[in-house]
Amino acid sequence: MTGPNRRAARGHLFTLDPSREYPVLDRAEGVYVWDAEGRRYLDAIAGIGVATIGYGRREVVDAMAEQAARLPYAVGNIFSNAPAIRLAERIGTLTPGDLDWVHFTSGGSEAVEVALKLARQYHVIRGAPERQVIISRWTSYHGATLGTLSVGGSKLRRRVYEPLLLDTPHIPPSYCYRCPWGLTYPSCGITCATELDAAIRAAGPERVAAFIAEPVVASVGGAIWPVDEYWPMIREICDRHGVLLIADEVVTGFGRTGRDFAVDHWGVVPDLLVMGKGMSGGYAPLGAVAIRAPIRAAFEEQGAAFEHIFTFGGNPVSAAAGLAVVDVWERERLTEHVAELGPGFAAALEPLRRFPFVGDVRTLGFMAGIEFVEDRETRRPFPPEARVAAKAREAGLQAGIVTYPGTGMAEGPGGRPAGDIISLYPPLTFQPSHIVEMGARLADAFARLDRELDL
Ligand SMILES: Cc1ncc(COP(=O)(O)O)c(C=O)c1O
C-alpha cells in the first residue's frame, strides 16, 4: 500500500506504535487470519491466547446474537442474569477443589484487580486489616492497569509508570534457564519457593494479604514452567502464614497446557483463580475469578458486600459467548487433544535449535517460548536496542505466521532489562498438519532473522 492509501487505512486510530505500519486484519476462519490485502497468516498465537476453539464458530455467534436480542445488559449491583448464573455453575465444576464461586469481569486485568481487592477485603472483614501487602514475582505479567502493573514483574512494562505504582515486594520466579542464585536443580533446595517464605517474614507475616503468580509464565517469559516441587511448596508456605494464594490462569486456563487449569499439573488448589482469554474464545470480552467456598462464606457470615463494581462485569452477551465456547471446548475434548498433541508440538520446534541465536525452546501443552541469545554458551542476551524479538515477529509475518514477541526476562549490561523471546499459543484446535506448517513457517522466519542478525 502506498502513501495516501496507507494513511487512509490508518485513519485516526491511535495505534500503539506510531512508527509501525499495522497490517489491517480483515477476517478469520479456523486457525488462519487474513489481512485487508488478502495475505493469509497461520495464527500461531490464537489472537493472543484467546481463540482457543478457532475462528468462525457459528454456534457461538448465534448464541451471542440471541442473547443480545433478548437481554444485552444487566447491571451487577442490582440484577443477576441467567447466562452469568449458568456459566458460573459450569466454571465451578471445572475448576479444582472448592473454587465454587465465580465473579465475572470484561478481561484479565479487571479479573486480577478483583482478585487483589477480594483478598484484601477478605482479611478486613475477618478482623485483620493490617494484612495489606501483596507479594508477587519478577518476570511476570498480570495486566495493564496500575494495580496489576504494580504486582506485575516486567521491568520494561513498569518503567514509565514506576512513580505511580504501589510499592510491593517481588521475588524471582522458578526459572532454571536463568536461575538468579546460580543453582542447579534438584540440588538447589528449590530456593525460588523458599524465597516466598523469606519475603513473607521480611514483610511481617501478619501484614501479608496474598501472593499472586502465573502457574506458567506467559508473555513476559515465554512458557517458563516451574520445577515440580514449586507449586505444592508455595501452597504450603501460604497456608502456614495465612496468606491467600492467587493463581493467574488468564493464559493457562481452559486447556492451554494440556490440563483444564495449569495448577492441575501439581494438584494445587489456589484460594482465588483468575481466568480470561480462552474462556470466551475471543468472541467477547470476558474474565473471571473463581473463589473458594470459605472466602465466599466469610462474606456471607459477616454480612459484607464486596466493595466493587465494573459496569460490564457479568455482561449477559459475554457470558452467552462463554457458555457456547465452553460447550465446544468440552464436546471436542480440547484439553485431551492438547495433551495428546503436545509432544508433537514440542518436537516440531526442536529443529529451530539449529539457529545460532536460539538459546532455549520450552513448551507445555500448546504453549511455547523460544528464547534468543547472542551467545549460547554464556546465555548472554542481545542488547535491547537490537530489538530482536520485534524483528522475529516481523520475520514471522513475512513468512505467513503470527508469533508474539516478549522482552525483559534477562539482565543486560549495567543491570538493564534485556532478553528476547517469541511465544506461541496456537488455537487448541491445531491439527498435526498445522503443527507441521508451523514448524516450516518458523524455520523460514528464523532463516530471515538469521540473515538480518548476521551473527
Ligand atoms: C497472565 C496474564 N494475566 C493478566 C493479563 C491481562 O489480561 P487482559 O489483557 O485481558 O486485561 C494477561 C494478558 O495478557 C496475562 O497474560
Task: Jot down its keywords.
455 residues; alpha/beta; Aspartate Aminotransferase, domain 1; Aspartate Aminotransferase, domain 2; 2 domains; seven-stranded mixed β-sheet; four-stranded mixed β-sheet; 36% helix; 16% strand; globular; binds pyridoxal-5'-phosphate
Summed up, what is this model?
By secondary structure, the chain is of the alpha/beta class. The chain has helices at 3-10, 46-49, 58-70, 82-94, 108-125, 146-151, 155-158, 191-203, 230-241, 293-301, 316-331, 334-349, 388-398, 432-453; strands spanning 25-29, 32-35, 40-43, 101-105, 133-137, 170-171, 208-213, 244-248, 272-275, 287-291, 358-363, 368-372, 401-402, 404-411, 417-424. Helix 3 (58-70) packs antiparallel against helix 11 and helix 13 (388-398) crosses helix 14.
Structure description:
It is a single chain. With 455 residues, this protein is of the alpha/beta class. The protein folds into two domains: 172 residues, Aspartate Aminotransferase, domain 1, CATH 3.90.1150; 274 residues, Type I PLP-dependent aspartate aminotransferase-like (Major domain) (Aspartate Aminotransferase, domain 2, 3-Layer(aba) Sandwich), CATH 3.40.640. 36% of the residues lie in helices and 16% in strands. It has a seven-stranded mixed beta sheet, sandwiched between helices. A hairpin with a 5-residue loop joins strand 14 and strand 15. The radius of gyration is 22 Å and the shape is globular. The mean pLDDT is 96. The protein binds pyridoxal-5'-phosphate (PLP). Pyridoxal-5'-phosphate binds next to helix 5.
